[in-house]
Specification:
Layout: H1 6-72, E1 89-93, E2 96-104, E3 109-110, H2 128-139, H3 144-158, H4 172-176, H5 203-209, E4 213-214, E5 223-224, H6 233-239, H7 246-254, H8 264-268, H9 271-274, H10 278-285, E6 288-289, E7 294-303, E8 306-318, E9 321-329
Helix pairs in contact: 2-3, 2-6, 6-7
Domain T2SS protein K second SAM-like: 223-290
Protein name: Type II secretion system protein K
GO cellular component, one term: plasma membrane
Length: 342
């Protein structure tokens, strides 16, 4: 006898398969929607945290301005006993913390001071400030020849005159021969990291000198003897070369009065300096100071998983005014370069 229910059973089987396929498809869509929802949630959360970290960094900048103004308003000098100079300050935040330091940007050799320096007329002797940079580089452990090449090249790099004045200076043709080729700005450096682009500056040389040099937007070189650290003793050695040894310079900084020296004359009156020839002291005196106008704030803000680093150059225009010259975002303070670039 013919079975009339067989087609119906087959239709029911097909319907079940269709339902299962639809269920699987809906499940897959639900999983994908859930994943996208979570992704959007984390994206928005990260954006909120980054914004919080950004504004916390702005707040740290304002705090740095206040610290500089309050720390200096009752003093004619800038020294490391003042509130702004406290290292490694930590501030708890809602969901994170901020860590920051303020350093004196006049406790270093300003590379932009070489801009516009004229060669010595009728003499093969280099300008004093170029010689100081060369000696400073040598004192960090760089070979004499390499130090001379770097010092002359820095002079030409920031000098607006296209004429090459230094014996080992590099002109446009030198940089055009690099791979990739580029031209020197013949103007101020925006940051000391630009030193890496100067002819002759290898990664090893840059690592040795980077704590001794800086780039602030002025051609003035006024080194604050009240804010030098012992590791920056080579700066004093270079200024008073060849009459001041590295050990004496380090001892001079280590024995510095708690509030620093009141004036440059008091510094020059120190026993380790007083015995130096008057001609050498007179040359160095022009580039010494006991106060500062440029400071750098380096802060890192952590909010949950977000991290924002802000490095700001601050200028003290007067006793009650501190302005921001430039800001740089990004980077990790503990990052160590692999020095693979040549």
């Amino acid at each position: 006898m013919k079975n009339n229910y067989a087609p119906l059973k087959r239709q029911r089987g097909v319907a079940l398969i269709v339902v299962l396929l639809l269920l699987a498809l809906m499940t897959l869509l639900a999983v994908q929607m859930t994943e996208r929802l979570h992704l959007n949630f984390y994206r928005v959360e990260n954006q909120i945290q980054n914004q919080q970290a950004y504004w916390f960094a702005q707040g740290m900048e304002e705090l740095a301005k206040v610290a500089i103004k309050q720390g200096i308003e009752d003093s004619d000098t800038v020294n490391l006993s003042q509130a702004w100079a406290t290292r490694g300050q930590r501030y708890p935040l809602d969901g994170g913390e901020a860590v920051g330091d303020i350093i004196d940007r006049q406790a270093c050799f300003n590379l932009n001071a070489l801009s516009g320096v004229q060669p010595t007329t009728g003499s093969s002797t280099k300008p004093y400030i170029v010689t100081v940079l060369q000696t400073l580089i040598e004192e960090t452990g760089v070979e004499s020849y390499d130090a001379e090449v770097v010092a002359d090249s820095v002079w030409e790099y920031v000098d607006p005159d296209e004429k090459v004045n230094a014996v080992f200076g590099a002109g446009d043709s030198t940089y055009e021969g690099f791979r990739p080729p580029y031209l020197p700005p013949r103007d101020w450096m925006a940051d000391a990291s630009e030193l890496r682009a100067v002819n002759g500056v290898t990664a090893a040389i840059f690592d040795k000198v980077r704590h001794q040099v800086c780039a602030i937007p002025t051609t003035t070189l006024a080194i604050n003897v009240n804010t030098l650290f012992e590791r920056q003793a080579p700066i004093l050695v270079a200024l008073f070369s060849p009459r001041l040894s590295l050990s004496d310079a380090q001892k001079l900084i280590a024995d510095r009065p708690y509030d620093g020296w009141d004036n440059v004359e008091d510094f020059l009156g120190e026993s380790r300096i007083a015995s130096i020839d008057a001609s050498i002291k007179d040359q160095a005196k022009e580039f010494l100071a006991v106060s500062s106008d440029y400071f750098q704030m380096d802060t890192e803000v952590l909010v949950d998983r977000s991290r924002v680093r802000l490095v700001a150059l601050l200028k003290r225009d007067s006793e009650d005014s501190v302005t921001v010259v430039r800001r740089r975002y990004g980077g990790i303070s503990e990052r160590i370069s692999d020095n693979q670039a040549r």
